[in-house]
Amino acid sequence: MGMIRTFAATLAVATALGGMATAASAQEITLRSSDTHPDGYPTVEAVKFMGEVLKEKTGGRIAVQVFASHQLGEEKETIEQTKFGVIDLNRVNFAPMNGIVKATTVACLPYIFTSKENMRAVMDGPIGEDILKAFEPAGYVGLAVYDSGARSFYNSKKPITSIDDLKGMKFRVIQSDLFVDMVNALGANATPMAYGEVYSGLQTGLIDGAENNWPSYESSKHYEVAKFYSLDQHSQCPEVLMMSKISWDKLTPEDQTAVREAAKESVGKMRELWDAQEAKSRKVVEDAGAEINEIDPAAFIAAMDPIYAKYADTPELQDLVKRIRDTQK
């Protein structure tokens, strides 16, 4: 019954969107792209920029239409739709892909990266390319890696300045087993929840807090209902821009090359927008009265040993951890 409902829902979306739509002729293509974030957010604008580059590369034959603000669904739903070819392009965090593409798990491990620069160096090199290649057997084509910033805890109850302050608090996390286990390992209670439900959850007291980066904390207005932001920076789990393998296989080799090149070119634009947005978002929330707390992460890092043991549980994943740690910037 569940499979019938899933198929029916997918079919309904396919009918509404038309899959990879063709325009006036069979050569004109519009790729539908999904993002949970609002217009103006760096990832949304980066995919729009990719569309502009792609249009230029193909003489206007291929365009990208971005559906922002989770118009096509939350990340978990759009991941499935992308596999079926209902959505052509999708910007999602690595975390909900952990159970689908195992290599993404390592990049989401707490404190795996030492800095933003370290994360970018890793993702721009052979390690990042290897992770993107791992998407294809799962029905997706990994095109580019975007920033997701450093994620930190915020809440509506009290300042968090040490690991002990987390005990017993309820925090929303991405719908990811790794994030659930990470928060629980810190003594808090993890509550997986769709991004679009977090504001009301904080407002009603269903959850005490959540964890995210500066731009998400600000653009979602979560600072209005959770004013205590603690800079533990536990995760720099990246984002991926991926394409449905079904949609990809409909393209000519030349158009596939153009799509891949345009996606890679969008990374620089995304980072430029991201760095500016981080600074702007921090100022907005501070001006609005959010209380920012610095944290010594040593105790947080020490609590993560069981997470590494559980999630880097194969020789391949352990090797990936080592390769990342050996990458210096």
From TrEMBL:
Keywords: Signal. GO terms for biological process: transmembrane transport. Residues 1-26 form the signal peptide. Coiled coil: none annotated. The keyword Signal applies. It comes from the Bacteria. GO terms for cellular component: outer membrane-bounded periplasmic space. InterPro entries: DctP_fam (IPR018389), TRAP_DctP (IPR004682), TRAP_DctP_sf (IPR038404). GO terms for molecular function: carbohydrate binding. NCBIfam families: dctP (TIGR00787), TRAP_S1 (NF037995). This is C4-dicarboxylate ABC transporter.
